[in-house]
Specification:
single chain; 463 residues; six-stranded antiparallel β-barrel
C-alpha cells in the first residue's frame, strides 16, 4: 500500500469517538491536507493528539466532507483507536516505518529507479524469484527470473532482444550473429567454416534425382562395386517378394525356421510347427487339429457343410458321433466299446454290438432275403416283443387302423365264447369268455378304423 507524505499539514477536528474523522480547519502556521497536496482517495500517515492521548496510523483521505479514515497501528489505547474528545488535532507525519535504514536485514521496495554505484549481491537466488541477482562462491553471479515467454531476456539499448532463455528450459536463443574467438566443442569454427565456404564452388548440389540416377547407372554392373541386379552379391531369385495383391511370393523357395503362422491381429489363432515331424492348428488358444507321422487328430467337431471326405482307404479314429448337417439329434454314434447305434429324432432306432442287432421298427417294403439263420429274433413267450396275437378293443372307442400303435391296457386277447353270433355284442366276434389284457405296446396289422371293438384284429407287440 503506497503512503502519501506532505509537508506541514495539520488540522483540527471536533469528531468524538473512535470512528472516521471529519477534518476542521488548518492550525496557525500549517496547511490543510488539500492545500499540502493530498488528493482524493490517497492514503496518508497521520498522527492524532488529544490531550495526553495519541494515535498513529494510516487512512484514506476524502475531499468530499473532508474526512479521514482511521487505521491505528500504535496508540496510547493499547495500539487501538483512541476515543476522541472533540478537541483533537490531526497532522501528517513520517514514522519509523516510512524511513529505510540499511541495517542489513530489511528489504527495500520501490517502483522507481535505484541509482548508485556497484550492486554487490551476497546470497543465492531462489526458484520463485521473478527477477533476482544473486551470488555464491561456486556459481558467482546468478540471474534468476520467471516470465510467461522467457525466464531471462538480455536486451540492447534499443530495447531489442539479444539473448533469451525460454521459460522452464535450459535453451539459449541468440537473436543476432554469434562470434566465437575460440573453439566450439573442440572445433575451430573459423578454420572449419572456411572449408564449408569452399564446397559450393566445386559441388553440383543443384542436380535433380534423375540426373543423380543417370550418373549412378554409369558405374552399374558386375565388378564395379555397384551392381543393381544383386544385393550383397545375391540375385533376386534368392529373396521372397510381396505381390501387388499383398500376397507373399516365395518364388518356389522354402520358409525355414518358422514356429507359428499367426492370423493377423489374433495371436491365439495360428498354425504351429511345435515339434519335429508334426504341426497343429490352434484357434482361440485351443488345439483343434494335429498331424504327425502316424495320426491326424481332430480335437473338435468336423463340419463338412455338404462336402465329402475321401479317406483314401484310411481309418478315422476317435470319432464319437457323425451328425446329420443341421440336425443335432440325428446321428450315428460309437457310444461304447464294440458297438454303435443309429439315432433319429433323439431316439435310438438301431443298435449293433458283439451279441445282437436290435431294430426299433423294421419296415420292409420289398423282398427281404436271408442267406443265414435268424436266431433270437422272435420271442417264444406268449405276448412277448415280436409276437403276434388276435386282439380286440376294450371299449367302443378302440377302432384300429393298420399301422396304429396301441397300449396293451386298451386291448383284450381273443378267446372261445359259448355264444358266437354276430348279433351278440357281449361275446360274439372275438369270443370274450374270460378276456385278459396284454402288456406292452402293440401295432395293428389290419383294420380300417371302422371295425367294432369285438372284431378280432391281428397285432404285433413292438415294445
Amino acid at each position: 500500500m503506497a503512503i502519501t507524505l506532505v509537508n506541514r499539514a495539520k488540522m483540527s477536528t471536533s469528531t468524538t469517538g473512535t470512528g472516521t474523522i471529519t477534518l476542521g480547519s488548518a492550525l496557525t502556521g500549517f496547511q490543510t491536507f488539500d492545500g499540502a497536496g493530498v488528493t482524493n482517495g490517497q492514503t496518508v500517515r497521520y498522527v492524532i493528539e488529544d490531550g495526553g492521548n495519541f494515535e498513529i496510523g494510516s487512512g484514506a483521505y476524502t475531499t468530499s466532507g473532508t474526512t479521514l479514515a482511521r487505521g491505528a497501528t500504535e496508540s496510547s489505547n493499547s495500539d487501538s483507536a483512541i476515543n476522541l474528545s472533540g478537541s483533537a488535532t490531526v497532522f501528517i507525519a513520517a514514522v519509523a516505518a516510512d524511513i529505510f535504514t540499511n541495517d542489513g536485514s530489511r528489504s527495500l521496495t520501490t517502483t522507481g529507479v535505484i541509482t548508485g554505484g556497484t550492486v554487490e549481491a551476497t546470497s543465492d537466488t531462489a526458484a520463485g524469484d521473478n527477477a533476482a541477482i544473486g551470488y555464491t562462491a561456486a556459481e558467482g553471479l546468478i540471474l534468476t527470473g520467471q516470465g510467461s515467454t522467457n525466464d531471462v531476456t538480455i536486451k540492447n539499448d534499443a530495447d531489442a532482444d539479444v539473448l533469451e532463455i525460454p521459460t522452464g528450459t535450459t535453451n539459449v536463443n541468440v537473436a543476432g550473429n554469434l562470434g566465437v574467438g575460440g573453439t566450439v566443442d573442440g572445433r575451430d569454427v573459423a578454420t572449419d567454416g572456411s572449408k564449408l565456404d569452399g564446397i559450393e564452388s566445386g559441388a553440383t548440389a543443384d542436380q535433380t534425382a534423375e540426373q543423380l540416377l543417370t550418373a549412378i547407372k554409369t558405374v552399374d554392373g558386375a565388378g564395379s562395386g555397384l551392381d543393381a541386379d544383386t544385393l550383397d552379391g545375391l540375385s533376386e531369385a534368392t529373396f521372397m517378394r510381396r505381390s501387388a495383391n499383398s500376397e507373399l511370393d516365395m518364388n518356389n523357395n522354402d520358409i525355414v525356421g518358422v514356429d507359428q503362422i499367426i492370423h493377423d491381429g489374433d495371436t491365439d489363432t495360428y498354425i504351429q510347427f511345435h515339434a519335429a515331424d508334426q504341426f497343429r492348428v490352434v484357434t482361440g488358444g485351443t488345439e483343434r487339429f494335429e498331424v504327425n507321422n502316424t495320426n491326424i487328430t481332430m480335437a473338435a467337431t468336423l463340419q463338412m457343410s455338404g462336402h465329402q471326405i475321401d479317406m483314401n482307404n484310411n481309418d478315422i479314429i476317435g470319432v464319437d458321433q457323425i451328425f446329420h448337417e443341421g440336425d443335432s439329434n440325428t446321428y450315428i454314434q460309437f457310444h461304447a466299446s464294440d458297438q454303435f447305434r443309429v439315432v433319429t429324432g433323439g431316439s435310438e432306432r438301431l443298435e449293433v454290438n458283439n451279441s445282437r442287432t436290435q431294430i426299433d421298427n423294421l419296415l420292409v417294403t420289398g423282398t427281404t432275403t436271408l442267406s443265414g439263420t435268424v436266431t433270437g429274433a422272435v420271442s417264444t413267450t406268449t405276448g412277448g416283443v415280436g409276437t403276434y396275437a388276435w386282439l380286440g378293443g376294450s371299449s367302443t372307442s378302440i377302432r384300429p387302423n393298420a399301422g396304429n400303435s396301441i397300449s396293451g391296457s386298451s386291448l383284450r386277447y381273443a378267446g372261445t365264447a359259448s355264444t358266437a353270433t354276430y348279433s351278440d355284442n357281449t361275446a360274439a366276434r372275438i369270443g370274450f369268455s374270460s378276456p385278459s389284457t396284454p402288456s406292452g405296446t402293440w401295432r395293428a396289422m389290419g383294420g380300417t378304423g371302422n371295425v367294432a371293438r369285438y372284431n378280432a384284429t391281428l397285432y404285433i407287440r413292438i415294445s
